[in-house]
Amino acid sequence: MFKKTICLTFLIIFDIAALLSSIFLAYLIRKEILLYIHPAFRMWTFPFSTYLINYPYFLGMWVLILAYERLYTKRFALGEEIKRLWKGATISFLIIMVLTFAARISMNVSRTVIVLAWALSLFLLVAFRLIAKKILNKAGCWQRKMLILGAGRTGEMVLGRIKGNKNMGYEPVGFLDDDEAKLGKRISGVKVLGKLSEVKNWSKEKKVGDVVIQFLVKKDYGKKRLLLIF
Question: Which of 46, 122, 142, 178 gives a 20 to 30 Å CA spacing to 186?
Answer without folding.
Answer: 142
